[in-house]
Amino acid sequence: MYAFDLTRPATIQEAVAALQGDDAQPISGGQTLLPTMKARLASAETLVSLTGVSEMRGICTDDQGRICIGGATPHAQVAAEAMAYPALAGLAGRIGDPAVRSRGTIGGSLANNDPSACYPAGALASGATIVATGPGGTREIAADDYFQGMFTTALDEGEIVTEVKLPVPQAAAYEKFLQPASRFPLVAAFVARFADGVRVAITGASADGVFRWSEAEAALSANFSAEALTDLALPDADSMISDLHGTGAYRAHLTKVMTQRAVKAAS
Predict the structure, then answer these.
(1) CA gyration radius for the chain?
(2) What average pLDDT score do residues 215-240 get?
(3) 138, 65 contact by CB (below 8 A)
(4) Prediction pTM value
């Protein structure tokens, strides 16, 4: 690991200001950044720790009934306290292991946007709003616009995820096929049924990262049952990840299986 300085701001504005320095990077739980730095695949002159920013931690409900989660809130806290949204709490409670859940944060996961991460599926299926704060102020980004490909998001330079606002659906469930070595999902599906339709988000399958399965959404909006997906197949199965853990065809198959399981669980 290369040498670096560490600063620990106490407020969001202090954090944003610190990130304007040369070669400064934010760090929250450090579950991705620190291993990458240890392998000397990344470096930073200054790490700006977000763990001391109390206004970025915690869970509440706003006047629209949305679950609002501070960007620096660890997975374990979401699992224990987001009981108004059981499917999201269940997702958080199955990320990694206890050590990962105690350090990793929802904001860090969404900012990193790993193609096999769990939170992007929950945010996209929920139609969440990601609140980002940077040198230009604070703005809200719809999840449909936020995720832009593998490790790519709509965040601008110097912006951090300060809060995530998630509408609570009428019914929802998250089902993942676990890759036991990494504890990331090989493929996972988050299904959320709202009054105006169903949203389905898939993670772990595509090299482009999390995506909505629109054909499944249409079928489930008309008939919310696992049987509604029987005759469906991913239209772009050839673009699925293919590696030593499974071929693209296998991941395409798992996408339907995990979505059907999520529908059954939500029902």
Answers:
(1) 18
(2) 92
(3) no
(4) 0.95
